[in-house]
Amino acid sequence: MSINRFAWLLATMALGLTPALSAHDKVRQPPENEARLIRFPDAGGYQTLVADLHTHSVFSDGHVWPSIRVSEALRDGLDALAITEHLEWQPHRADLPHPDRNRAFEEAVAALPDGLELIVIAGSEITREEPAGHMNAVFLSDANALLKVDSDPGTDRIDYYRAANEWPPEEAVRAANEQGAFVFWNHPFWTATRPTGVSRMTDFHAALIEAGHLHGIEIANGATYSEHAHRLAMDHELALIGVSDIHDLVDWDYPPALGAHRPVTLVFAEERSAAGIRDALFAQRTVVWFKNLLVGREAVLKPLLQAALDVKDAAYRRIPDIRNPGQEIELAIVDLTLTNNSDADVRLRNRSPYTFTQHADEMTIPAHGSLRLTVRPGEKVPQINLDFEITNALVAPKTPLRMQHLVELEVGG
Ligand code: ZN
What we know:
Elements: H1 3-16, H2 19-22, E1 47-52, H3 66-75, E2 80-86, H4 103-111, E3 119-127, E4 134-138, H5 157-164, H6 169-178, E5 182-185, H7 203-210, E6 216-221, E7 224-225, H8 227-235, E8 239-243, H9 250-253, E9 264-269, H10 274-282, E10 286-290, E11 293-296, H11 298-308, E12 309-320, E13 328-340, E14 346-350, E15 362-365, E16 370-375, E17 383-396, E18 399-408
Parallel strand pairs: 1-2, 2-3, 5-6, 6-8, 11-17
Antiparallel strand pairs: 1-9, 3-4, 4-5, 6-7, 9-10, 10-11, 12-13, 13-16, 14-15, 14-17, 17-18
Helix pairs in contact: 3-4
Bound molecules: zinc ion (ZN).
């Protein structure tokens, strides 16, 4: 070991013992891993922010400390992370009684490395039996106001859950709304409580919607996308939400080495802030990014795909004229490149009368990649109209987004 290296080691050890550095359990800045960052372009005049609005830690039934959630969010390139512990389901209660239900959020905020701008959102999961089921309230100022346990049930988790379930869920939702929270219905397709796995409107949720107290619904949670929940969102004017609902490690459930990503909600915000995200959620400017599926209302999904896709280098093909050496002739064949500036592999189905000779009517533009197309319009025309369904971008259940793109062409000799 050289003297210099030894001196450096001593310096490092000294720094490690400095109380100022160890006072806060800050997560380390994660290593650069461009491939795993979730990346979509800004669209429609808004900033596209990536949010996971449903996560758990040891402060309810998760298995990690909140600082790990922060670290994972930074690794995934999230803009926003909501901490949403079950208020009533407290399986670690004997070891972690934590009477202040804001602690998980506070621990997450404290773990954020200086200078890194992850927006950490305070939330809670209101947890009842059917028909209420589970609901998340995000943008809370005090989670404790959403919980009321009259009797003292001791440390048994089941006793505690039963005691906490006594307070009517509509009261907890009302308390959340009094704080200006955005409230959404969690996994209404959860088979643990709904043996059919089919999401159906209930009188309980209909009354909340009527009162203006329920604003969104999960259509994707973990490994599941529900067309029934998607239908409920469209029929009842609820914001479309997609979440991880992570309890273990993101890397276990969505291995980055396999190109997997957690389900997230893309939020189209006027500004990169908690207030910007909250406003966008209430305005229903969201797209759910689940596996290789994008789900959103056409008003936001179309601008997102328009921002992601482009046509480049469109031109009639020129080849050497074998009868007149040194000269070229222009064929009535158009070559063009479709580019894709998003994380989705964009799947296209041709709806135009044209044929693309390297492809039949189904084709894919890879994420952050391109696709070369050849079009034979039959004659040299000044423009061609590309017309596609994007089969992995849904504007309603079973309804792909349709997009047209007019390509201007220069017609030469
Ligand atoms: Zn949950």
